[in-house]
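Example protein
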Amino acid sequence: MKITFVGTSHGLPQKDRYCSCYMIEAGDGIYFVDAGTSFSDAMRDYHKDSMKLKAVFTTHPHSDHTGGIVSGISTLAWRKPELIFQIWFTSQAMIDAYKRYLSATFYCPNGENPTPSVEFCLANSGEIYRDENISVTYFPTQHLDTTGDPAYGMVIKELGGDNASVLFSGDLSYKLRSNDYPQEAYNPHDLFVCEMAHFYPKHIEEYYAKSKVKGLAITHLHPVVEKVPLINDMATRLPYPVKVVADGDVVEIKNREAKWL
């Protein structure tokens, strides 16, 4: 399994960082976790065959995690109309909104899917996806508890090959409520991709220290200048390697070990 960090910014894009978007290559497939920037542009920029795209998995409705979906669909509808792929949303309201928007821009006549090859799917807790390459299991977070909207993290496991297992936290709660730390982190995973826009290392270090992951990639970071030195200090006390990721970073998991390329 290979993960390319296409976008690592927080709620707003920065000069050198797009909003949240992570491209996963496993077997003969390409997948995305979140699309804060266009997944079609990402495949072009990283010289990937867009015909290998299987699915896009979103963690919650905020635009810094979903804002690239319309352009991704629109581009592929023109360039690769024969492509078959899925987009997983966390609420029916999001599915309905995207259908209406695409209908208004002439890609979605009569409220139907924008092309016969794009399927909008509704995610819930538990395993929501499985193909010949990966399985995807969602778990709830408290990121949007104040509004009552669903938000999720996920575990992506490679089926066959090196059987890699990667944990994605999704966005978590403000100052990280104690019961919002992903319980999956206490199970073995080859890499933990954790978003840190809404809390500081002091809020999470005790949970990291007890986790059974083999490595930690911190993303969706804000404020960067203030938090990076604190993360580097915390890393000296954790039992596994820690990396603050930037756009363009790539990690490959082979033999259950994460190697940064």
In short: The two ends are 13 Å apart (CA to CA). Residues 92-104 form the longest helix (13 residues). The mean pLDDT is 93.
